[in-house]
Amino acid sequence: MFQFHFLDIPDTWLDPARIREIQEIFSESVPFSQFGGVNISLLPDDEIHRLNQQYRGKDATTDVLSFHYHDAFEESHQDEIVAEIVMSESRILVQAEEHGHTPREEFETLLIHSLLHILGFDHETDSDFEDMWKYEKAIRSHMSLWIG
Question: Which pTM does this prediction carry?
Fold first, then answer.
């Protein structure tokens, strides 16, 4: 099970019981090794924009970026940082309002989505999207998260 390290995330977005639930449901639902630590932080939009351009070639801001340092995590140690997730606080607030839910729910939705990216899922093709969405939808339904 991935271990989360939250850096500069508002306390109102972090419910320890919900975070444990996400970890457990994610671990049970996605049949891939998930050993190691994942740093999760917020960055200003200009920094997200820069990273998105540098690593994805996209000249725009985005809500979240995921970076993983291994292709598989079977050999990782629990105290080893294996991935990073950076999120835009402003995008989380806007998207929460657009979708009619709380910033915490949007944060949790993006966390689940990002963890799937870390494990190698993508949504560049319809087939890839279907594979990723199958897991995301199942996890989100267990969490009673917005399913759009």
Answer: 0.89
Eight-class DSSP state of 11: G
Q: Identify the residue whose tokens are 């093709």.
A: 125
Nearest Cα to 73, choosing from 7, 123, 3?
3
Percentage of the chain modeled with pLDDT above 70: 97
For 81, phi then psi, to 5°, come to -80, 120
Name which residue leads in pLDDT, 88 or 73. 88
Residue 136: other Cβ atoms inside 10 A: 22
CA distance 91 to 61: 9
Q: Average pLDDT of the chain?
A: 89
**54 CA to centre of own chain:** 20
Distances (CA, A) of 66 to 12, 41, 55, 117: 22, 11, 10, 7
φ/ψ of 108, rounded to 5, equals -65, -40
Single-letter amino acid, residue 89: E
